[in-house]
């Protein structure tokens, strides 16, 4: 009995490597990519994860509430300094085509009775961002889709224009379906084909090497410490990375592209927001060829 008791009390062999090995860059990237398979991380995720309670919503992992009592500090920043919010989880749809064709079809899903529309002169020039409510085609004031914000790319002398529409991820699928219907965009223009390095099988091998026990700690890559990390998963919480993300209309030539997680979005609140931007962003010098 004493011998059996000693066998049960014997410590089990550790299933994980030492912290130094686990914190290697290539191991961290493989582990982070594995944890993003169901819920995508924003680029500021690690910063938020250390300071916020995280929640999983709309296919993303977002910071919900701070772990410390920072409400007074946030209020002070909004009223006297500058507060930055990461809104990159908002979805962005890009419309490209002739301006008159875009305005003709977009007029069917909004109404001048609610305020500004896509053809407002101040917004059409690209100097200001507009906001409005979208409805199903020719169904105003019924069948509301939800609120969106939009901004036009300034004119460059050509007939084609670019329009970016931002919306909440919960509204993306219904709005995208309506836009594809009014512009008759059904054929995919681009389909993402993942590279071999991004396959889940290789990621699992990386994780298996990290979690292997009872063996000498070596990487499968011959380059060892110089091994190239696994690439980050492409896609977002509202889009399957293996499906098409751009559609074109053969009749109107309009192209609808899903730019979610490709264009980051930040919100600055406070009286010093403009001064922070001017000190952070520097104008590039124009180079003529």
Uncertain stretches of 5 or more adjacent residues = 192-201, 209-234
What does the main sheet amount to? 7 strands, antiparallel
Give the tally of β-strands.
12
What is the approximate shape? globular
How much of the polypeptide forms β-strand, as a percent range?
15-25%
Secondary-structure content class: alpha+beta
Can you characterise this structure?
By secondary structure, the protein is of the alpha+beta class. 28% of the residues lie in helices and 24% in strands. Among the domains are: 19-68, no CATH class; 91-188 and 244-262. The chain is built from ten helices and twelve strands. Residues 192-201 and 209-234 have low confidence and may be disordered. InterPro entries: Pop1, Pop1_N. This is POP1 protein.
């Amino acid at each position: 009995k004493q011998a059996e008791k000693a066998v049960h009390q014997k410590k089990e062999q550790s299933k994980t490597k030492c912290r130094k090995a686990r914190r290697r860059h290539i191991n961290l990237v493989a582990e982070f990519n594995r944890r993003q398979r169901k819920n995508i991380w924003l680029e500021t995720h690690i910063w938020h994860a250390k300071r916020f309670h995280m929640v999983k919503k709309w296919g993303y992992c977002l910071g919900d509430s701070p772990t410390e009592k920072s409400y007074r500090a946030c209020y002070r920043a909004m009223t006297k300094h500058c507060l930055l919010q990461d809104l990159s989880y908002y979805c962005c749809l890009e419309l490209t085509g002739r301006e008159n064709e875009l305005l003709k079809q977009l007029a069917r899903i909004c109404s001048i009775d609610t305020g500004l529309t896509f053809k407002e002169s101040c917004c059409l020039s690209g100097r200001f961002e507009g906001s409005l409510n979208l409805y199903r085609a020719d169904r105003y004031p019924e069948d509301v889709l939800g609120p969106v914000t939009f901004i036009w790319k300034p004119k460059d002398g050509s007939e084609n224009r670019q329009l970016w529409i931002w919306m909440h991820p919960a509204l993306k699928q219904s709005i995208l379906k309506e836009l594809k219907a009014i512009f008759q965009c059904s054929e995919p223009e681009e389909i993402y084909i993942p590279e071999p390095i991004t396959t889940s099988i290789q990621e699992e091998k990386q994780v298996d090497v990290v979690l292997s026990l009872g063996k000498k700690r070596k990487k499968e890559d011959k380059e060892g410490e110089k091994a190239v990390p696994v690439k980050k998963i492409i896609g977002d919480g509202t889009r399957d990375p293996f499906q098409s993300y751009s559609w074109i209309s053969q009749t109107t030539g309009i192209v609808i592209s899903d730019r979610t997680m490709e264009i980051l979005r930040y919100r600055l609140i406070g009286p010093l927001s403009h001064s922070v931007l001017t000190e952070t962003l520097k104008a590039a010098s124009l180079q003529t060829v």
